[in-house]
Amino acid sequence: MAPFNENDLAGQAFLAAFKQRLIELGWTEGRNLAIDYRFTGGIPENVRVAAGELVGTTPDVIFASSKVSVGPLLQATKTIPIIFTQVSDPVGSGFIASLARPDGNLNGFQGYEPAIGGKWLELLKEIAPGVRRVAVILNPTIPANVAFLHAAETAAISLGMTVTAVGVRDAGNIESILTAFAREQNGGIIVTPSPVTNTKDNRELIAALADRLRLPTIYPYRLSAASGELISYTYDGVAQWQGAASYVDRILRGQNLLNFPCRRRPSTK
To answer: Which of 70, 83, 175, 254 is the most buried if burial means most Cβ atoms within 10 Å?
Structure first.
């Protein structure tokens, strides 16, 4: 189950890497493997429905990307193995007991660690030294987003900067909030990862606003920098999806989900 739309090119690149790794491990779709896809666009109702549908098919294993997918799946099943990627702070989110010893029916690959919020601020300051005020775009209902904010607030003290939380739960208020923020000089933006900021339309909206309002911005997605925006700092998403394929392979071959740890991936510019 994926939080992007079926026509999202970045998401499809992740999916292609996942399927290619499965082929390398001996699993070919249509021959010895069946995959039931759900693309939800990160919309909560779509996710809830998709979780119920997938669990109803009683698969051998479910692969889910992002926190927004994992929560509803855990509510729908406590027995079907679930492999996840791109979930920031799975322990703090209450999904697993620890990275070293996951419990229940969930395992996978952690995305961002909370301390990266401070790193984003440091890099923004390094690349745009004039920035003194930073708006952190986050979803306040996501614990990991709040942890990123707190890390940025701590780092701001030694950097001589101020950090302002910009809470968004949908695209409706992004433009008005950033326009108001930009009325004062020396501003910049940190974009945290969430279903709101991850969609193609909202990524493009934030990038367009940052350019028009002259707000140096650091993004949590490599695609943003690759598309010509200022800077991104993130982990290797392709490697995470490839790793998830290796965990799916182990489940399909009868290994116990709890015999291997939840893993991290290093961050890369």
So the answer is: 70
Q: Which residues lie below 8 Å from residue 97, measured CB to CB, with a gap of 6+?
A: 91, 103
CA–CA dist 89, 152 (Å, integer): 16
Mean pLDDT by 10 residues, the chain (269 residues): 82 92 96 95 88 96 91 94 89 83 87 92 96 95 91 97 89 86 96 84 89 94 70 88 94 84 55
Does an H or E element contain 234, and which? strand 234-235
Supply the pTM of this predicted model.
0.79
In a domain, 226, yes or no: no
Domain count, the chain: 2
178/172 Cα distance (integer angstroms): 12
Q: Whose CA is closest to 62, among 40, 29, 85?
A: 85
Reported residue count of the chain is 269
List, for residues 56-68, the tens digit of each pLDDT value.
999 999 999 888 8
Closest CA to 248 of 75, 38, 67, 23: 23
- CB 133, CB 162: distance < 8 Å: yes
Helix (H, G, I), strand (E, B) or coil at 74: helix
Same domain, 215 and 255: no
Longest dimension (CA), the chain: 60
Give the whole-angstrom CA distance, residue 189 versus residue 125: 11
Say how many C-beta atoms besides its own lie within 10 A of residue 237's C-beta: 23
pLDDT of residue 226: 60
State the CATH number of the domain containing residue 214.
3.40.50.2300
